[in-house]
Amino acid sequence: MCKLDIQPQHFEIVKQILRTYLPDYEVRAFGSRVKQTATTFSDLDLAVMSEKPLSLRQLCQVEQAFSDSDLPWKVDVVDWAATTPAFQAIIMQKSIVIQQQKTA
């Protein structure tokens, strides 16, 4: 299993924001913080595994929450349904689930 290269206290902030703004979606981390190639201020890349594109309001709210948080780096949120198949393949090459999809 891959490990996410962030401090535990920062991971708690990430999880809390996701639970607040995107509670119904699976969310995957990908990029340098999963590949273990991150530098101190590398961003955290997150993919929201949506079947239909997220609303602009949802995206703005979660992005603003990350921006307003005490995280020492930027968080980039990608809407799975709005990405190309080529980019989806890149995400799936090496990603880890950090939030499970809520089941009904």
TrEMBL record:
Residues 27-102 form the Polymerase beta nucleotidyltransferase domain. Coiled coil: none annotated. SUPFAM superfamilies: Nucleotidyltransferase (SSF81301). It comes from the Bacteria. Transmembrane segments: none annotated. This is Nucleotidyltransferase domain-containing protein. It comes from Gallibacterium anatis.
